[in-house]
Amino acid sequence: MSITSSIHPQANPLDALMAHFASSSKSVQRAFTKYIIDAYAEEVETRRQQVMMKESLTQAFKELREGKARPVEELFDEL
To answer: Which pTM was predicted?
Structure first.
């Protein structure tokens, strides 16, 4: 059993991380904060791209269904 677990047997990993973060130098804190923000920004951008792709595919399939429902002659009239 480690010293930490004998002093705080109910400590969870987040509490341990925050204690370590608070005791770290300012440069380490800034670097860690930048890392977290960058990772979050990447996750947000990935999610944004997924939503755009879903909307694009939804629109494409809608147009495909509408095109199949129309007579071929009408489709050529639009060109």
So the answer is: 0.54
